[in-house]
Sequence to fold (257 residues):
Amino acid sequence: MVLCGSVNKRTAHEISMAGGSAVGLSGKDDALLRATQLDPQLGLVGEVAEVNVDLLEDLLDLNLVPVIAPIGVGLGEDESTTYNINADTAAGAVAKAMDASRLLLLTDIKGVLDKEGELIRTLTPAQFEALKEDGTITGGMVPKVQNAVDAVNGGVGSAVILDGRRDHAVLVELLGDDDTGTAVMGTGRKPVARDAGRGCNFRAGGLFKSVAPKTQSKRGGTAAGSQGTGAAPLGRPHGKRPGVVDRSSSTEEARRK
Fold:
């Protein structure tokens, strides 16, 4: 109830107070996220099996930013069961289903770090496997990067792990001159360059008031998160689907060997 009824609604309200238009949802609303049990030993923890894309498209057509709490419902005879879903996993599933150009995962460190503690700015799925094998990427950063890799392997242009403690981290990544965090780049489709859209006008559920060129979409972005449910909405350049943002409040570190 805290996740869906308090944090989620507060995030949607804050977007509206900032001048945007947002609606707070859980994955149970209109079966937005259908899930299967991840592991019987973990109890009611699920993984996303289906995303109700039609619902999200309808909301985006109305210039509304969906703020999604990662709670899902079961499939078939299990549809009365409620599942808790990892926030990064939920965001990645939504990004893939919506064919998003970019997925942003906000955390509480700079990004993926090397053994000297320096930020790794770009990462491929193959490099991730190598760094995981040699102990550079460990602990809670492993599943976060794995979710990013799964997203780009599923067709998302790129997935960026950002330091959510930084002021305006999302806007800096999208529109600023400096790269922030670690970008996981896919190979299944043409990767989205990190400077794509910088200097362009974006529309995100009415949050950004500047008028976008006619070749750009007026749709907002989608957000998913755990205890920090939701994050800044995204616009999209060049007619691609919106980006997806996840903000998780869990403490994660890229430990050095």
User: Anything to note?
Assistant: The mean pLDDT is 75. The two ends are 39 Å apart (CA to CA). The first strand starts at residue 22 and ends at 26.
